[in-house]
Design goal:
The complex is a heterodimer of chains A (416) and B (103). In chain A, 34% of the residues lie in helices and 17% in strands. Chain A is α/β, with parallel strands linked by helices. Chain A has a 6-stranded mixed β-sheet with strand order 7-6-8-11-9-10, sandwiched between helices. In chain A, strands 1-2 form a two-stranded parallel ribbon. In chain A, strands 4-5 form a two-stranded antiparallel sheet. Chain A is globular, with a radius of gyration of 24 Å. Chain B has 3 helices and 4 strands; from the N terminus they run ββαβααβ. The longest helix of chain B is centred in the middle third of the chain and has 16 residues, at 44-59. With 103 residues, chain B is an alpha/beta fold. In chain B, α1 links the parallel β2 (34-39) and β3 (64-69). The chains are: A alpha/beta (416), B alpha/beta (103). At the A-B interface, β1, α2, α3, β3 and α5 of A face β1, α1, α3 and β4 of B. β1 (8-13) of chain A pairs parallel with β4 of chain B, so a sheet runs across the interface.
């Protein structure tokens, strides 16, 4: 509206002012005028709206009539044109404090991204360090290979994870992922990364017992690195641009591999059109995670549990991941259920919602993925959230040598 | 023993500079002018504009009020595709705009 020459003032809930200002600046409008109001989000109580707007009426009028300052007429850049590549020198704790105070961390200790550590991380890819993989929203920060490597070092990742991180950045930058909505939404959607293909074994990515719990370096640091990349490259910072109302612990890391060896069905990436020999990463954006206990392990009990778990959802919760144990998958397969038949079953049993504010448990268009994983036990997990996509992972020429170098980085638990 | 010093690289990515735009000159008074009220498709936005319309009419009885309620999305979606022509025509038809997202 300002671009068309019409003086405009935007009414923004006071909790979203930083978000609004970052959004305006990243689009070249750093001096847009906002009025911070206190109308509760999504408010349906007219008396509350009335009181909140009455409190800012003078500001609204002033926003449309007060003469412009020189900076509003000709805004100046807020960030340095050529930021320093080396930003600090100090001890381990000093580096951590420096990064934390700059807002570049995630609250956990970070590995210092020295030239040496970043150089080692870069051995994980054939791509040149200045190669631009993508520009990440909302700030359109440049996700160069080096910038990915710096954040990967900080997360404690191994160089062998670089091909996955590059593919993961490509996935987020793909408009089809709709990451622009999921990453900053009040709905607190978190990226859920599933790795498929032979690379799972190369990197010892857990697909079994406790795959989504802490304790495996690949599962933990791939997601953590992506969280740092989203924050430090894309510029989506909690409470500033990432406006997740309650937040989501999965934003630390939610990564697993599919147990392709024990699955009776084709792997996830093959379902998405890739070859079995390909490596791939699939991302979706759930904001809820339900662990269901089936009343039996026969096919009828398993299917009934899934169907009963598909409750109608609020906006956005249309993509469903069904996490099935290998034993349950085998039971269903032995009864003639293909993976596609199970997807169709899920869609058929998605209950329609009541009223316009609720949607079906799936959108009925195949937004369902079946992932075989998990350890001993008898549980089923459903995750629900934002639409996802699959990207092929490209490996460097010296992959086998690289894998051999880091293959032994696995925990060994002593018995007691 | 002296602690090892680490010289560290910045994790904060560069971004290409983009042209910065100044905002439009304001008008000295809203009296007698055409005031536009934009509401996004979020449920609270049109409610807010209904209340704001009442308040503007009380404060500026000689002014004309014009509403635009987005059928879907926020402001940017109105500038492309099927909404573009109608939205641009509306923006140009008013002297000032107060916009509500609903958050």
């Amino acid at each position: 509206m300002e671009a068309m020459g019409t003086p405009t003032v935007s009414l923004i809930n006071k909790g979203f002012i930083n978000d609004a200002q970052s959004a305006a600046s990243s689009r070249g409008w750093p001096s847009l005028r906002f009025v911070a109001e206190s109308v509760p989000s999504e408010c349906s109580v007219m008396e509350e709206i009335d009181a909140a707007l009455e409190a800012v009426m003078d500001e609204i009028v002033a926003g449309l009539t007060r003469p412009l300052s020189s900076d509003e007429s000709v805004p100046q850049p807020r960030e340095s044109k050529s930021p320093s590549r080396i930003v600090f020198k100090g001890g381990l704790q000093e580096v951590n404090r420096f990064f934390y105070k700059r807002g570049w961390g995630d609250g956990l200790p970070l590995i210092p991204p020295t030239e040496e550590a970043v150089a080692e991380m870069l051995t994980g890819t054939d791509l040149p360090r200045d190669h631009l993989v993508a520009k990440l929203i909302p700030r359109l920060g440049k996700a160069t290979v080096e910038q990915i490597a710096v954040n990967a070092v900080m997360a404690g990742a191994l160089p062998t994870y670089m091909p996955i991180l590059v593919a993961a950045v490509q996935a987020l930058a793909d408009a089809a992922s709709n990451f622009t909505a999921w990453e900053v939404s009040t709905g607190s959607w978190a990226p859920f990364w599933v790795v498929s293909g032979p690379i799972r074994e190369d990197l010892t990515i857990n697909s079994g017992s406790g795959a989504l719990s802490p304790g495996d370096i690949a599962n933990a640091t791939i997601g953590r690195a992506m969280g740092l990349i989203v924050k430090n490259v894309g510029g989506a910072r909690k409470g500033m641009e990432d406006m997740g109302t309650f937040g989501n612990p999965a934003k630390y890391s939610m990564v697993l591999a599919e147990n392709e060896e024990d699955s009776p069905w084709e792997p996830l990436h093959v379902s998405q059109g890739l070859a079995a020999s390909d490596n791939a990463i699939t991302v979706s954006f759930p904001n809820c995670y339900w662990t269901l206990w089936p009343t039996g392990t026969d096919d009828t009990a398993l299917l009934r549990t899934i169907a009963d778990g598909l409750t109608p959802s609020g906006a956005g919760q249309t993509w469903t991941n069904v996490l099935l144990l290998p034993s349950h998958a085998r039971t269903l397969a032995d009864k003639g259920w293909s993976k596609q038949a199970l997807v169709d079953f899920v869609n058929d049993h998605a209950k329609p919602g009541v009223g316009k504010d609720f949607v079906s448990a799936t959108d009925g268009k195949g937004d369902v993925r079946v992932i075989v994983c998990g350890g001993p036990g008898s549980w089923i997990v459903l995750t629900k959230g934002g639409r996802g996509l699959t990207k092929r992972i490209e490996l460097p020429a010296h992959w086998d040598k690289l894998v051999a170098k880091y293959k032994n980085v696995v925990p060994t638990y002593a018995r007691y | 023993m002296q602690e090892k010093a680490y010289e560290v690289l910045s994790p904060w990515a560069e971004a290409d500079p983009i042209p910065l735009n100044g905002i439009s000159p304001r008008i000295p008074d809203l009296a007698g002018r055409k005031i536009g009220l934009f509401a996004s498709s979020k449920p609270a936005a049109p409610r807010m504009m209904t209340i704001l319309e009442e308040k503007m009419r009380q404060r500026f009885p000689s002014s004309e009020i014009s509403r635009y309620n987005a059928e879907e999305g926020f402001i940017i979606l109105q500038t492309v595709g099927k909404y573009k022509e109608c939205f641009e025509e509306w923006v140009k038809s008013v002297d000032v705009i107060a916009a509500a997202v609903g958050d």
